[in-house]
Amino acid sequence: xxxYDLYGWLTAAETPGRxxxxxxxxxxxxxxxxxxGERWVLLEYVEPQPLQPAPxxxxxxxxxxxxxxxxxxxxxLADPAPEVQAVVKDASVRDFIDLDxxxxxxxxAILQAAGHAIDAQAVIDAPVRxxxxx
Length: 134
Description:
Blueprint: E1 2-4, E2 10-11, E3 19-20, E4 31-35, E5 40-44, E6 59-60, H1 62-67, H2 72-78, H3 82-92, E7 97-98, H4 104-113, H5 120-125
Antiparallel strand pairs: 1-2, 1-3, 4-5, 6-7
């Protein structure tokens, strides 16, 4: 049996499910055997790129979201304006706040329009700390 890796390159390592009885051609210094699914082909070897970890979701708890407003959070939570209360309620009924949600900047703009001098970009762009994760 002849074995090939995840990328089809001939390997000496026994790889269950990645084998063939078809003998590969002789490799050269520049060309290596690669299994096409039907036959071996000689190709210039390309080092596979390491797999990149999936990006971590940028989610924070609702409490951490309000904490990002610093001392302004109390005035926001206590503001009786219907628009502000709509933003507070919308955030409060969620399991978490997704900082990449495309609707988030509009909600923060409502708070700014109501006179709360928050730094919306800082709220959204600050790195997620371990204690903020849901």
